[in-house]
Hints:
Strands 1-2 form a two-stranded parallel ribbon. The chain has six helices and two strands. The chain has a single domain (2-136), classed as Rossmann fold, CATH 3.40.50. By secondary structure, it is mainly alpha-helical. The chain has helices at residues 2-12, 37-46, 60-65, 74-84, 110-113, 116-136; strands at 69-71, 92-94. It is globular, with a radius of gyration of 14 Å. It comes from [Bacteroides] pectinophilus ATCC 43243. This is protein-tyrosine-phosphatase. InterPro entries: LMW_PTPase, Ptyr_pPase, Ptyr_pPase_sf. GO terms for molecular function: protein tyrosine phosphatase activity.
Amino acid sequence: MAQSIFTYLVKQAGLENDFEIESAATSREEIGNPPHYGTAARLREAGIPLVSHRAVRMTEEDYDYYDYLIGMDSANIKNMQRIAGGDPDGKLHKLMEYAGKGAARDVADPWYTGDFEATYRDVTAGCKGLLECLKKDNKI
């Protein structure tokens, strides 16, 4: 969901040439699967194109390659640190750090909650905040 929303926001801002946006899992159970049908339905309702992809697992090389690695929850961050061998460059962040609501909290996983609307609201707020932060800090 986050990849599709952030890709959409970046394109709306005319900044698609300034970004490379990818999604990766931190566990193995969903590898090879497409986005969940609940995610596809919620994005369709919002008029946001679904970025078609199959789940891949984050690699240690991803840490070196990308400037920012954004996790949805504390378990993601812990797994990302393990995969990357730490976070010496401070690249790992929770998405909700950018939502402007105080301390970074977890995005509830709709796989477990079934609440794609709440996840959509959180992910949209986090993605908008991340884009604004990058603009403000002259990172793009």
